[in-house]
## 1
Amino acid sequence: MSDLYSISKWQEPAICRILDANLDRAREGLRIIEEWCRFGLSSIQMAGECKEMRQELATWHSDDIRAARDTPGDPGTELTHPQEEQRISIKQVLQANFCRTQEALRVLEEYGKLYNSSMGAAFKQMRYRVYTLESHLLAYQRHRLLEQSFLYLVTSNSDQLFLTVEAALQGGLTLVQYREKNADDTIRLANAHKIRQICHHYGALFIMNDRVDLALAVDADGVHLGQQDVPIAFARQLLGPHRIIGRSTTNPDEMQRAIAEGADYIGVGPVYETPTKAGKAAAGLDYVKYAAKNASIPWFAIGGIDPNNLNDVLDAGAERVAVVRAIVQAEQPTLITQYFLSQLTKEQTLRRLESRISQSHV
């Protein structure tokens, strides 16, 4: 222990116990994150990053640090908090363990300086790696869920707004956009916060319409921008790389521009005339057909789509659809959501089967 500087002999065991506990804590937190990256997300890259950091931590866990361990004499083993007793979502599990790991690394960074002159710098850099991993994992989860979402609910003014959204989520919906053009910002903010809570309870994405500021204020998963809204680059600068940005498009030029500017998904429409876009001519099924052949990012056919014309839209090449009135005004939002999802899932299955048959003949 020649590197203990001016630490007195009676302080040495305490320093080692602190290092021992936090090395264990950081490794345990990383292992929990690693398991989800590996089995939940099938991300070899992120799982490998966790494993690499765990192994690096192990190299610092020397015999003299381990020898200082005194679990029976540790008063902290009895400390707990009600929030530690339950987790209601994967997001909570991950957030708790990212916090646990980051806090442990900060402790190792500070107390490590007293034990080894290289320890502080090493754990400082690892802490930054964990921050980066957290951002990447959150972005990865959001984008993966976006790709797996084939039905998109865009809300409109309704006395039963929260009940309708929750009913649709109970039917399997995984993507919701809060759209309200006429309310005051205080009402929008309150409504957005409530809908985000409902969405995240069901593991669904919550997107804010138009307003980047409100998206940030309520910690939305992303924002949807119209053609007259702020540029995608400006929204990305404010939102960062881990949130989703969508853009409405009405023709091939707007579609190609949105993709080039970095949109994560686009709306394609309006397919049919709709009061949601009063006065705007329908883009029609031809634009849906164009998107099916040329869009390189997820896209949602939108505009007047309902159970009566859904098959026409799917026949034109759509794989994903966004709806407003078909769910918001439905007497049984859960059932209509399930109907949409069943049709979209069936279409996906048929297309995968056709693709396999086609590839087998090549």
## 2
Amino acid sequence: MSILTEILFLYVSVVYFKKKERLLKQNYKGKKIPCGIGIVLGFVLTFYTFFIYCYVSKINFLVIGLSFLAISAVGFIDDIFGDNKSKGFKGHIKRLLKEHELSTGLLKMIVIPFVLFAGSLYLTEDILKTVLYTVFGSLSVNLFNLFDLRPGRCIKALFVFLVLFGFFINWSPFYISLLILLVPIFIGDIKEVYMLGDAGSNLIGYIFFVIISKLYNISVNNVVIWIALFVVAALNLASEYISFSEVIEKNKILKYIDGLGRKN
């Protein structure tokens, strides 16, 4: 039922934004299409997770549901009101100090770590785990936001990472359901019907974090989470010096995977 609801909401949202000419932004080809449609996925995942919480009464699902909503919503605010006047943490801080403007990018950098910190602390009551989850989750959200530069790339990156870590993941029905719910929005994204925007790419990063951290239950001594944290941190750092798009274009395998299903 959730996937049918998602398809309906996607269709209605795209038709509405195109008809009213709202939230239309140029993609990498210069084509104007609706942006921020990831908010639809945000609502679908939120309601789906709340439904599970009502059924099994496990607080983990309530925390994850609220996090889905908050992380997607703050990304949607950035999709609507964001601009390119400042980039990166330093750029947003300088803008705040010099121009006395709170950019939507800085708002996102504040809200997302706070959501992760509050949820982790409530569930674990362990400051070490809380700090670890906050750093890992924040870096994951930012990383997948960086991948969202070409149609379908962000969700493809998630699938690639999950394949690499798949052997170490305990694939619960909830994880599989999350990935299934990504299929409809992935199809529209890769076909250039709309763009995920920060509202969607933020969610993809959070989904990666949730699956790797096993609903916040994994031990901080588990080597997998430390490897994942190292990889995510390294890629975030690398993004400051290299272009992921250029790296993908120069690598035949990555270029092939990146181009699968995309319009020429």
